[in-house]
Amino acid sequence: MLMIQHVSKCYQQKGWFRIKERIQAVKDVTLTLRQGVCLAIVGESGSGKTTLGKLVLGIEQPDCGAILFDNLNVCTTVKASKKLLQKNIQVVFQDCQSAVNPKMKIKDIIAEPMELHLSLSKAERVKKIEQLLVQVGLAPRDADKYPHQLSGGQLQRVTIARAIATEPKLIVLDESINSLDLLVQISILKLLKQLQREKGFSYFFITHDLHAVQLFADEVAVMDKGEIVEFVSDITQIDNMTHPVSRRLLAARLPIPCKHPSQSQRFDREEHVS
Amino acid sequence: MLEIQQLSIWIQTENGEKQVVRDASMMIPAGQTVGIVGESGSGKTMLCHAVMQLFRDSRRYNGDILFEGRSLLAMDEQEMRQLRGNDIALIMQNPIAMFNPLVTVGDHFVETMQAHTPVKKQQALKIAAQQLARFQLPDPSILKKYPHELSGGMLQRIMIALAASLSPKLLLADEPTTALDTLTQLEILEELALYQQQTNTSMLIVSHDLGVIAKMADTIVVMRRGQIMEYGPADCILVEPVHSYTQALLAAKDNKYSLEQLVDAWTGEVSGELYEYRQGHWVRQEETSC
């Protein structure tokens, strides 16, 4: 569905008093993402994973290579195909506070992409907004609130509702859950997983947290200095990654040390009872 | 070292007073690390502010905080200023927002040190370079840089070095690594642990990530909605969590469980009394449905 073919991207630092510097953000990346699959891109900060996400969204143009979505180039300038791409590729950013307009009510935030991409009557739209809010675990009465009245986790759900409002095929998740509480992270991952199963969404999951990857992704690509250094197509093999960068990311997971066998047994039993 | 006794905190809001911490008691023994874990709104940052006595005018306290036997709540602002920085230092969450963008890193050190000790500028810069070297920033040219020229990880290291430069007896770290990526997080936590080993400083570390707390703390406090849910030695809590909220938090960091098995929202009410489950390990009683 999404094909990234030999894509490179270079940034040039410009300044009045500075010598021009070229930074190779993405270097000859080739990846394929099938429908209904979650592909995780992991790497340290500065490894080019966000740039790759921007390229997929068509916000940035690659210097060379091409990104094809359903055989359409994401950098197309043809208006009709551009609109089709915008409908089918959506994004959820890390910082939800700055990803929404503080002057708009929640219902207007979610309605905006629908007005542009779906031809619905006003009544249908209101009904759909209600449906979406319930789907992401919010109450229909939240529709009349403003962003500052919601917590970070709730607002992130709103941005997810906005992303799924146009029924896209691909969602780019750029560090979408990192700043949230542990249990809120789990509930959002669960929601996204459920949508993936029901609607066949694909995810381009950009993160540096391998624990979330393990829970959520199907395939993993590790990036370092703009290049893909390791690719794992089976998520259960994630512990066997060999590249030094992958090993370092694996080591940074901060697992809970020293497990006592009795603890897990007790937890399972309690789950069983409830 | 530090003892928090039955502390309750109220803050002023538009709709009158709101209680954010209720009857929290804990102790930080000298040379040990206590970790507070809890979700947003659980009152963990409020506790840090209470220990530093920040925003005194807009908050109301009940209970007591004893630092080396002296009550912080009874102190006037003058005495408190002496304590802040010298004896108790705070590392904040967002390093980028905490630095003055118009002041170089070196001048931040000079300002901080001259506020507390009669030290010459040159000497202060020398101490600054030493402290920075301790936190993996050995290049002295960093002192001439402005905050925007440095990465988040570097700024957080500088903030820790800044806090450490006056060798406080107690270091409060409020979400010290939340804004950073996992690799930098690990490095900084290891440096903090090493610093503590070398200087025998007491530490209070606050995070919503149980992984961070598990790595650092000797004693763990689990908080939710301003109340302590479980409090005890890290070995006990990590191996055998008693409260179901702690269990849910632990499972969420465990590689063994798949996404479907995890509890995504712990909706139980915070009620019941704290009781001593075993020596030094306190748990809040849960209401049983049967």
UniProtKB/TrEMBL annotation, chain A:
<keyword id="KW-0067">ATP-binding</keyword>
<feature type="domain" description="ABC transporter">
    <location>
        <begin position="2"/>
        <end position="250"/>
    </location>
</feature>
<dbReference type="GO" id="GO:0055085">
    <property type="term" value="P:transmembrane transport"/>
</dbReference>
<dbReference type="InterPro" id="IPR027417">
    <property type="entry name" value="P-loop_NTPase"/>
</dbReference>
<dbReference type="GO" id="GO:0016887">
    <property type="term" value="F:ATP hydrolysis activity"/>
</dbReference>
<keyword id="KW-0547">Nucleotide-binding</keyword>
<dbReference type="InterPro" id="IPR003593">
    <property type="entry name" value="AAA+_ATPase"/>
</dbReference>
<dbReference type="InterPro" id="IPR017871">
    <property type="entry name" value="ABC_transporter-like_CS"/>
</dbReference>
<dbReference type="GO" id="GO:0005524">
    <property type="term" value="F:ATP binding"/>
</dbReference>
<keyword id="KW-0813">Transport</keyword>
<dbReference type="InterPro" id="IPR050319">
    <property type="entry name" value="ABC_transp_ATP-bind"/>
</dbReference>
<dbReference type="Pfam" id="PF00005">
    <property type="entry name" value="ABC_tran"/>
</dbReference>
<dbReference type="InterPro" id="IPR003439">
    <property type="entry name" value="ABC_transporter-like_ATP-bd"/>
</dbReference>
<protein>
    <submittedName>
        <fullName>ABC transporter ATP-binding protein</fullName>
    </submittedName>
</protein>
From TrEMBL, chain B:
<keyword id="KW-1278">Translocase</keyword>
<dbReference type="GO" id="GO:0005524">
    <property type="term" value="F:ATP binding"/>
</dbReference>
<keyword id="KW-0067">ATP-binding</keyword>
<protein>
    <submittedName>
        <fullName>ABC transporter ATP-binding protein</fullName>
    </submittedName>
</protein>
<dbReference type="GO" id="GO:0016887">
    <property type="term" value="F:ATP hydrolysis activity"/>
</dbReference>
<dbReference type="InterPro" id="IPR003439">
    <property type="entry name" value="ABC_transporter-like_ATP-bd"/>
</dbReference>
<dbReference type="InterPro" id="IPR017871">
    <property type="entry name" value="ABC_transporter-like_CS"/>
</dbReference>
<feature type="domain" description="ABC transporter">
    <location>
        <begin position="4"/>
        <end position="250"/>
    </location>
</feature>
<keyword id="KW-0472">Membrane</keyword>
<dbReference type="GO" id="GO:0005886">
    <property type="term" value="C:plasma membrane"/>
</dbReference>
<dbReference type="InterPro" id="IPR003593">
    <property type="entry name" value="AAA+_ATPase"/>
</dbReference>
<dbReference type="InterPro" id="IPR027417">
    <property type="entry name" value="P-loop_NTPase"/>
</dbReference>
<keyword id="KW-1003">Cell membrane</keyword>
<keyword id="KW-0813">Transport</keyword>
<keyword id="KW-0997">Cell inner membrane</keyword>
<comment type="similarity">
    <text>Belongs to the ABC transporter superfamily.</text>
</comment>
<keyword id="KW-0547">Nucleotide-binding</keyword>
<dbReference type="Pfam" id="PF00005">
    <property type="entry name" value="ABC_tran"/>
</dbReference>
<dbReference type="InterPro" id="IPR050388">
    <property type="entry name" value="ABC_Ni/Peptide_Import"/>
</dbReference>
